[in-house]
Design goal:
The chain is α+β, with helices and mostly antiparallel strands. It has one domain. Helix content is 29%, strand content 35%. It is built from three helices and five strands. The strands form two sheets. The chain has a three-stranded antiparallel sheet with strand order 1-2-3, with no helix packed on it. A hairpin with a 2-residue loop joins strand 1 and strand 2. Helix 1 packs across helix 3.
Amino acid sequence: MAVDRIGKIHHGEFVVNGKRVGYATASGPRPYQEDELVVLPLPPAFFDGIFVGVFDGHGGGYAAQTAASQLRDYIVETEAFTTGNYLQALEEGF
């Protein structure tokens, strides 16, 4: 971890389904981070895919936390996702 004039910078890596996803965050002048990052596996029927999301807290972390914890499930539960229409699934999941 490094610290500079704009605040704390964190970086790291997730490994999900054998895929490595690196990340870096900066909280700016706040002493806390409002944004959320999620890296989750997709259901087994979809091979070894992963869901990666970055959610902007934008004035408060609650919306970002809610989206990070629920959005993947909303998307994969759509009929469009199960039939392979992933763009439509994203639209419906939101």
